[in-house]
Amino acid sequence: DATKKWRVPSKGTAGNVRDPSKQCKKTKGPFLLEIAYEMRASPVIATVPDRPAITIPVMQIRPPSVIRFENSELLDDFAATEDWCTNAYFAIKSIENLGVACLDKNLETIAQTRATSRLMARKLLARLPMYLASKIPPKKEHLLPGQHWVWTSLCGKLTRVCTLMHLSGHIAQDLETRGPDEGFLALPNEFQQVV
Description:
Mean pLDDT: 79
Order of helices and strands: HHHHHHH
Structural class: mainly alpha
Number of helices: 7
Radius of gyration: 37 Å
Largest sheet: none
Low-confidence stretches: none
């Protein structure tokens, strides 16, 4: 019976097992080698005790969402309006410094402003994994996209930030033709280039 405590006899030697007068001093029975030899062809006779079922705990933490940066559908559906652009003009100094004429030009071509902002956001998201590969250490996997809340927040705000960049005149005019290793900012600029 597998549920009862069993005293293990001494191992013994081949000479001890062959001599029928010798027994294990601890158990007053046969040596362990003899028991193993006799049991090698016997059927299994042990009984397994009943154990209560193990309950698997329910996870209280929401599993992380997976973010694929190549997919532009992750961006929010923000579309700049004339009122939003006007409020940005009065709130942000770099837009105000360009003057009312530049704002009026952007408001006249509001559809182009929206398209450029959306394109810039898509290009930044596509470039982000390559940038992050060299910046996030392998031991900090909890900071990777889809694991940390900041990436969901980024996708929700990036189109707005790109619209402000466009209104400030920071985005290159030929953004559509820029390659993966070319900058997206208009020249000249005072921004540090990150490689």
